[in-house]
Input
Amino acid sequence: MSDTELVLRSTRVITPEGTRPATVTVADGRITAVLPYEVAVPSNARLEDFGDHVLLPGLVDTHVHVNDPGRTEWEGFWTATRAAAAGGITTLVDMPLNSLPPTTTVDNLRTKQAVAADKAHIDVGFWGGALPDNIKDLRPLHESGVFGFKAFLSPSGVDEFPHLDQDRLAQSLAEIASFGGLLIVHAEDPHHLEAAPQHGGPKYADFLASRPRDAEDTAIAQLIGQAKRLDARVHVLHLSSSDALPLIAEAKSEGVRITVETCPHYLTLTAEEVPDGASEFKCCPPIREAANQDLLWQALADGTIDCVVTDHSPSTADLKTDDFATAWGGISGLQLSLAAVWTEARRRGHGLEDVVRWMSSRTAELVGLDTRKGAIEAGRDADFAVLAPDETFTVDPAALQHRNRVTAYAGKTLYGVVKSTWLRGERIVADGEFTEPKGQLLTRDN
Ligand SMILES: [Zn+2]
Output
């Protein structure tokens, strides 16, 4: 083992065995040991003592739309990864759409990797996309290291990323299962969306009615059926409808290989509070009622929902018009996700250990990075966030690192101030000061 270069100490280190006073030793960018708090520090090692601030594993956000290259006026690798670092995230996995090109061929993946390489302040991996016409590209993309494949079951919002009907879904899923891959799915059924009342305009209630729960429930039921038939591994993206929870719980109990994520906005914002015309709150599926939110929290607690990811999906401010039907659908949350989720988790009696499980350990597992990321234990990368969990701040859009400072959280007071973020043993941001980009491009472990 290499000599210890860095020693991190806190009275509250979140480890897989719980939170305790500990000393964490680091060499060559990896954690070498988690030791008792009082252990002697080697004389040649640098000591960083965080006192009572919490040392937690850097978050792993597996659902981010960076949009680079092609729609860089919406977001880009430089701004997205700085925002993520400021929010305690040390790994993100980029969604295959909204960039031009989308990540649907190996050539396109290479283009994306080349663009990201010297802009990444945190580690970055890539999802591939499953389109109606790219089944032949799925295996080569898998072999090139994408973490899995995203598909839409209803229109995606951009023309270059068409959705799969049930036949195409079956074909793509069979192909992905043939090489042991993962399909991640935007699950809203297009027929239920078409049948729903489409009034448009500024009223949030009208928008909510246009994206009903049964669109999600039906698509998820169909996905479960396909996964079961093909013994394929599937993941439900951004679950909003609590009505789908019993279906998911039953599928899991039957051994269907399905995992589920939800997002900070479904867990912390409610339909009742969205002002009419406020399309910074628009996303698909939509933010639903408070009673729905309570059930999502219960499902996180009992494991029906596995993890929490941002679905950070920004656009320029001019596309966030006051007509919910035509405004861009997507919520920016990268920098605020930890604080937003922690604030509500705390209020509901959950611990920071739970938040770490949902936002770091389980997401690392989802993409097979759990030998490197997602926990403070020997052998993993020395990726950390240092958090003052009882300090509050009021969200000021001007303080965001996102390219477009549009946020549904403006003016909210949140618990949890990230004091510094560390990537492979280097402090990459502290007090708003960033180092040069030190992120690496990640590929799926073979
Ligand atoms: Zn998304």
The chain has a mean pLDDT of 96.
